[in-house]
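Practice problem: predict the structure.
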Amino acid sequence: MNLPNYLTLSRILSVPPLIWILTTKCIPTAHGEQELLAAAVFALAALTDKLDGHLARKYGQITQAGMLLDPVADKLLIACALITLVEFNPHIVKAWVAVIVIAREFLVTDLRLVAAREGLTIQARSLGKLKMAVQVVAVIAAILDRRWSNVGLHLSGVQLVLGIDLIARAAIWVMVLLAFISAADYFVVFWKRIEEAAAKHREPSLVAHERRLREVTTIGG
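Answer:
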């Protein structure tokens, strides 16, 4: 085990505390303590997703265990957060939203497993990374939206209003759209890799067949 892997494990271990914070009645709620604490825990957990990959690449600590654990940690964190938010803030996170996003994760995981059995590797796609970033924004905004629809900001004497409710709703829709697009992207890449692998398997057979035809022709001539 190395530091990047420990960070990945910390993301997995952050899931139970996050669920407890979002569902418990033990945390004060008068000033939004529950929402702030949940948002902080989720944000820190999401930050480890960037940090573990950066450290692994920088110090050459990319391991098979890390490659397996990292996507599992991401999917577990997002899936559990969305399922809990269906109850915590249902007017933002609907059940069908959680179903679509989680179903996409199952589909991509299955495609990767099938590809792995064929000796193929499907690397993380840029759309998948964008999807993860949007999911983080959507979850944090949905958590905070339960207490604050808008937040006033004072910057250099100028008062600005940050529409958390608008950000949450927009991020949710973008998240759902990216779930469909990224799933289609993975499927196209998967099908292309399978076709390329099949073509490579056919080539030796074709060469052998052509050789036999030439031998038969030579003998017959």
